[in-house]
Amino acid sequence: MVTDDLASSLDVLELKNAHIYLKAANAVFTPAHGFSAVSTSVDFPVLECVTSKCRAVISLQGAQVLSFIPNGKQDLLWLSPLATFKTGDAIRGGIPQCLPWFGVNRRQPELPKHGVARTQMWTLGDVSQDADETLNLRFVFSPNDDDLEAFPYPFTAQLEVSMGSELGLTLRIKNEGGDAMPLSFAMHSYFAVSELDAVRIEGIAGREYLDNCQGLARFVQDQELQFDAEIDRVYEALGACQQIHDGSRKIKIDGEACDTVVIWNPGQTLAAGLADVGPYFRGYVCLERGMAFGDELELAAGEAAQATMRLSSN
Ligand SMILES: O=P(O)(O)OC[C@H]1O[C@H](O)[C@H](O)[C@@H](O)[C@@H]1O
Prior knowledge:
Family: Belongs to the glucose-6-phosphate 1-epimerase family.
Shape: globular
Protein name: Putative glucose-6-phosphate 1-epimerase
Structural class: mainly beta
Pfam families: Aldose_epim
Bound molecules: 6-O-phosphono-alpha-D-glucopyranose
Radius of gyration: 19 Å
Keywords: Isomerase
Largest sheet: 8 strands, antiparallel
Number of strands: 23
Number of helices: 3
Oligomer: single chain
CATH class: Mainly Beta
Number of domains: 1
Organism: Zhongshania marina
C-alpha cells in the first residue's frame, strides 16, 4: 500500500532536473559509496533521488537516509557493508530516526531501544522543489496499536528531508493525545570517515559530558577525543555546530532545537559482537543530534516539538 501511495505521488511530480527512482521491495539494491560491490535484497521500498546537486538514497522503513553524496564530493554517510534490510530490523548506518525516546527508555527499560519509528514504515507525504532545485521529501509516521499499548501517547512524526548541496532534516513530533507526553529523540547520523584514529571533533572542547561507558558519570571534555576504544558520550544542551575533521575533509553538523549531541563508536571489542558492524567499525563516527537525557521534553496535549539538522562537507 505504501508503494501504491508512493507511486501515485511520484506520477504527478513535475521536477526540474531531478529524478526519484523507486526501488520496490525485494529489488536488488546497491548501497552507495565504497561498497558498490555489495548488492543486497531489501524487504521494503527504497528511494533513490538524483538531482542537479546531489544523489541520495532513503529507505521507507524508518525514513532513513542511507546515503547523501553532494556533487563532486564523497558520501557524507556510512552504511555498513554488513547492514541487513529486513522488515522490523534496524538498518546499521545512514541516519536512523530514534523516537519517541532515545536509547533505553528510562521509565520502561524493556521497551525497544531508540523508540518505535526507526524499524517501521513511514509514508511519503509530500514532494516539493525549491527555486534553487533543492528537493524536499516529507515523510510521516504514526504509532500502531502495539506501539500505543507499550507507550500510551498518541503522536505523529514528520520528517522533511531537503536535498541540495547540503542535507537538511527537519523533524516535527506532535502530541496528538490528551495527556502530557514525555519525548526524547535523536537523528542518529553515521558519518563516513577514512581514518578513525586521526579523526578530530571540533565543537566539544571544555564541555561536560555523560560517559555512557561509565554509567553516565559526568566528566569534562578537557582533552582531544580519541577513538581508541568504545566511545559513547552525551553532551547535554550543547547545540551549536560541530565539525568532524577527517584528514582534509571536514563534515559540518549544524542545527536548531536538537541540543543534545551524542558521539558513538563501538571500538574493536564491542564491534566484534555487533553482527552488522564487525571489522568495519573504523569506517564511521556517529554524531547524533536530538533532545535527550537532561534535554528531554514534555509535550502538553496538542503541542509539537520541531528540530532541524543540516549536514555539509568541504
Ligand atoms: O545498536 P543500536 O541500538 O543501533 O545503538 C547504537 C548506539 O546508539 C547510540 O549512539 C547510543 O548512545 C549507544 O549507546 C548505542 O550503542
